[in-house]
Amino acid sequence: MAGEPQADCLFCKIVTGDIPATIVRETETTVAFRDINPQAPTHVLVIPKVHYPDARTLAEQAPELCADLLREAGAVAAEDKVDDTGYRIVFNTGSGAGQTVWHAHAHVLGGRGFNWPPG
């Protein structure tokens, strides 16, 4: 259910500290941590502390929290010094788009060139 912690959710367990992660930023509403399988020199996940299954649900039910995620993504890029050279923010929504953890999250990717279109 949206907004409530899920006992079987990997990211909810990171929020509670039950699963360790390399935290790079934390606010009242978000946690940002390094991806365990980085796809770029900077690859940080920014998640809401409360559970929403995907970006669409997050945007529909908590648009202010969605804005917090985007703000924190920019702060991560600035801290990793990729904001001047360019970075990508990716929300995978649905299994067909590559979502594997059903807790809304933004990937902040930077530190190398990216092609367009992605995929």
Automatic annotation (TrEMBL):
Residues 10-119 form the HIT domain. InterPro entries: Histidine_triad_HIT (IPR001310), HIT-like (IPR011146), HIT-like_sf (IPR036265). It comes from the Bacteria. CDD domains: PKCI_related (cd01276). Gene3D superfamilies: HIT-like. PROSITE patterns: HIT_2 (PS51084). It holds the Pfam family HIT. A motif (Histidine triad motif) lies at residues 103-107. PANTHER family: HISTIDINE TRIAD HIT PROTEIN (PTHR23089). This is Histidine triad nucleotide-binding protein. It comes from Streptomyces humicola. The lineage of its organism: Bacteria, Bacillati, Actinomycetota, Actinomycetes, Kitasatosporales.
